[in-house]
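pipeline/complex-builder :: batch 7 item 3
reading input block
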Amino acid sequence: MNLANSFRLDGREIPFQPGQTLMDAALAAGAYIPHLCHNPELAPHGSCRVCVVRVGGRLVSACTAPAAAGLEVASDTPDIQASRRAILQMLFVEGNHICPACEKTGACQLQAVAYYVGMLEPHFTHFFPRRDVDASHPDYVIDFNRCILCELCVRASRDLDGKHVFAISGRGIDSRLVIESPTGKLGDSAFAATDRAAHVCPVGAILPKRGAYSVPIGQRLYDREPISQVGDVAANEGRARS
Amino acid sequence: MHRHPEVARLETAPQPAGLKRIAIDPLTRVEGHGKVTLLQDAEHRIQQARLHIVEFRGFEKFIQGRPYWELPVMVQRLCGICPVSHHLAAAKATDQLVGVDQLTPTAEKVRRLMHLGQTLQSHALHFFHLSSPDLLFGFDDAVAHRNIVGVIQDHPEIAKQGVLLRKYGQEVIRVTSGKRIHGTGAIPGGVNKALTAAERDYLLADVEQMIAWGETAVQLMKRVFLSNADYHYRFGAVDANTLSLVGPDGAFELYHGGLRARDPDGGEIFDYQDYRQYEELLREEIKPWSYMKFPFIASLGPARGWYRVGPLARVNNCERFATPLAEQEREDFRAAGEGRPLQAALATHWARLIELLYCAEGIQELLHDPDLLGTDLLVSGERRSRGIGVVEAPRGTLFHHYEIDEDGLVRKANLIVSTTNNNQAMNASIRQVAAHYLDGHELTEPLLNHIEVAIRAYDPCLSCATHAMGRMPLELELVDAAGCCLDRLYKGPDGRVERLVEGADGALVGGGA
C-alpha cells in the first residue's frame, strides 16, 4: 500500500485518490462512516452532521473533508457515536417518525443508521409537529412528517433532473420542504416517477404509491445485515421498499 | 330485555343522591382498562350497576388523512392481543378500496391460517391465563392464589398446555405475517408471502398435539360447567339476541361470511346479510355515562335490539362446524341448551374452547392444502372510495369501515369492535349478577369478584394491548348518605386485601380484613 496516498481511519489504512473526500475514500475501501445527507451522485452537503469524525483534534464532516496523506481519523469512538446518537434522537423527535406502522420500516436509512449507532429510544421530548401528507401526484406520495431536510431530493431534482421541483423554505427550526408548483402540490409540479429525485429519499418521506409492505418482514433491506454491510437506501433502489 | 327486569332497572338509580358508591377499578384479568360502579342503599340493596370503559381509542380520528395502504398495519396497533383481527378486517376493507372482491386461493388461505392461529392463541390466553383460576379454584378462592401462578402451582400440566397452545398460535402468526405481534402479512389485494415447505412442516410437527390439548381443554370446561350445572346455567345468564358471521350454508365461520342475527330462542332476525350493508342492519346508541357506544339491531330498536357477539353467539348461531371434533363438541353443547340457545355467561368459556379446538383442526387441514405454498399472492382492480371489512375476532364481530378521497387518503373511518358489540350484554350480565348475588350483602372481595367473573366470560378487550393480571391495586370505599366514608378496602399489588379504617387523627390505619 502506498502510504503517501492513504490515511488511517480508526487504525485502518485507507487508500485514496487525489480529490476524494474522507467519506468517498472510506466507502470505496469498504469502511463505513454513518451518514444521511450524503449520496455519491451528488455534491457533498455536510448538513446532517452524522458523518462527523475527529481529525487531529478537530471535528469535521467526513463527506466534505478532503482526504490527505497521513491523517489520523477517528470515527467509531464512544464520544463521536454518542454525539451521532444525540443528532439522531433530535431528528426522531423533530418529525413524526412512527416506525412501527411506517411502510419504510426495515428499509429506512434513518432507522438503520440509528440502530448502527446504538440509538434505541428517542430520549428527547417529541415535538409532534402537525404536518401534511401530499398524495396529489398519481404515482408518488410525500409524507412531510418524515422529512429530515437532508436536501437529497432538492439536489437531485436540481442537479440531476434539471427541474427544481423541491426547495427548503424558512429558517432554523421553521425550515421545511416545499414544492415548486402553482398550488404547492406535487401533483401540479414537474415531478415524475422516473426522476432521480424520486429515488434518493433516505427516509419514508417520498414514496411510490404502490407496493407498500410488499416485502415480507425478514427480507427487507436492513432485516438481515446492518447498514454498514448493506449500504444506502439509494444504492439499493429497487429492493429498498419494505 | 323484558325477561330480565333488573337489566333496565339497574342501569340508572332513580335517586342516586346518598347512595354508597363502590367502584371495581380497575377490572382485573381482562384486556385493557375498565371499571364497574355499583350504587347501594343503606340496606345494601343494589340500585345501579354499570360497566365503564375508561380508555379513549382515537384511532378513527388520527388515521384521517393517512394513505389507505397503511391501514392494515397501523390500525392493528389498537391491540396487542388480537391485532391480527384488526389487520385482517382492515385488509378486507382495503381489498375493496383497490377494487378486489376475490383474492387468489393462496392469499385467502394464508390469511385464514393467520386468523386461526391468532384465535387459537387469544382463546388459550384467555382461558388458561385469565379465567381458569376462577373456574378451577372457585370465585371466592384466596385472591393471592386465584391467578395464573396458582394454576402453575396446583395444575402444572394444564398451565403448560395453556402456554404452549398460545405459543403455537403465535408461531402460526409469525410464519404468516413475519412477526408474532404486529406483522405485515396482509396487504390490499392479497398477502406479501405464502408459506415455504419448511415453514409448513415446522407447523405440522406440533399440530396433532395442539388438537389433543384442545380436546382436553374442552372436556375440562364441559366437566366444570356440568358439575354444578344449576348454578352455572343461572350465573350471569341473560337472554340476548346473537350476532355473528356464518358461511353460506350456516356453517361456523371466522374470516368471511354473511351476518346472521337470532333472537334468544334461536328464531331468525336476519340471515346471511352482506356486511357491507351493516349500517342498515345495526345502529349505535350513545349513553351519557359511558364512552363506549351501545350498538343494537336497527329493526328491533335500542331496548330490544341489543345483542351478544363472540364465542357463545357464534356457537349458538351456526348450524355446524366444518371440522369433526369441534362439530362433535358443538352437538354436546347444543344438547345442554335443551332446545334453546345456551344463554349462561359461563357457557361462553365452553364455546370458546370448542372454537379453540376448531382452530387447531382447521390449521391442520389448511397446512395440508397445497395452495398455501402458492406463488400467486396479489390481485388488483379499479380503485373504489369505500371499503368495509368484517371478521369474527376472538371476542366477536369486528367492523372496519373506511372512506378515502381521490388521492387515496382516509376521509372517514368507523370501527365497531367486538367489545363494543358486547357492551349492553356485559352490562346486562353484571346487573343480573349484582341483583342475584350481591343484593342485600355487605360487599366483600369474593362477592365483587362475581362481577368480574361475569365480565371475564366475555373476554372483553377494553381497548388495546394493556394488561391487568389480577395484580392491580384496587380501592373500595363505602360512603354514606352524608358523604362520610364508612368503610374502605384496599387490595394491594400483591393481591392482599386490607380494611383501612380512618383513625381519630384522620390517618388511615391498616386493619385485618
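note: The radius of gyration of chain A is 18 Å.
queue -> next item
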